[in-house]
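pasting for ref
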Amino acid sequence: MDSNLKREIILDNYQEPMNRGLFDDDSYIRVKANSENCIDNLEFMIKVDNDKIVDIRFDGEACAISTSATSIMIKSLIGKSIKDVKNILTNYKKMINEEEFDSEILGQLNVYDEICMQPNRKNCALIPSQAIDEFLAKIEKM
């Protein structure tokens, strides 16, 4: 993917993130994710129906990378089965950690394929996956 296109996708998702804003609804599972290294502190609401993620919302304070990664992650996971969500997360984390991954599965999340060149930003890009991991752990206990 062209570096200008990557920058445009990241900026668009930072300036106008998908599903920003929380509300009261007990049918959602709430999780939080934060970084020890910077300002990133996000809360997520995730709704599952028939083993599929039907909605994800978020809010909080975060840098451009965390906010854009969260927005793109939301777009990538809504409508997916839990099995597909796990596969996307596995490949996303492998990409961020410079391991072999399947880029076909990641779609726009591929914009972070060079984030490893800025090691201090890797944690920022992993904030949404941290929240989804916590969510998956919660639903497995149910």
